[in-house]
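Task: sequence in, structure out. Protein: NAD(P)H-dependent oxidoreductase.
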Amino acid sequence: MPATAEPLRVAVLVGSTREGRFAPVVTRWLTGRLDQRDDLRADVVDLTETPLPTVLPAFGQQPPPGTEEQLALVSPRLAAADAFVLVTPEYNHSFPAALKNAIDWHGEEWHGKPVGFVSYGGLSGGLRAVEQLRVVMAEVNATTIRNTVSFHNAWSRFAEDGTCTDPAADTAAKALLDQLAWWGHALRDAKSVRGYIA
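Result:
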């Protein structure tokens, strides 16, 4: 990264809202990796702390009262992001409803921006959720990063204090974040010259 380049703003969107969730452990690990970099700045958007309305208005209609206040806690942060990392578990071979809801409430916030994935779960490590999210993110004009971080049998990969015990995870995170940084800078630079057309 050139010395004059401004760090990328990375919105880390935490998709799980389930009681007793494991997402905070994975998210703390990820933000620890982001904090070690000079080229990326993390903003954690946890959908448990900032829940969004679950009923979308009819097409072309105004949302119900109170919606704007809820969106105001999330939408400006997504709009300000240069890149995203979605932290997702796998529920029934897919991703959480709260994550899809957050994606659907937004449009231009995703356009022309890179998206990386950190997933966790049982044997599949959340990879089926990621494969479905790739299709969804393509529909909202985002660019997904090939490399992912996937925690298979996630509960056995972390010590009680939240320390990751799998050294391969750091290698995977570096590859993911290097690609995210490359795409983030390339797309941000391109949009500064020519506006993105969706």
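Helices lie at 23-35, 67-71, 75-80, 97-104, 127-139, 167-193.
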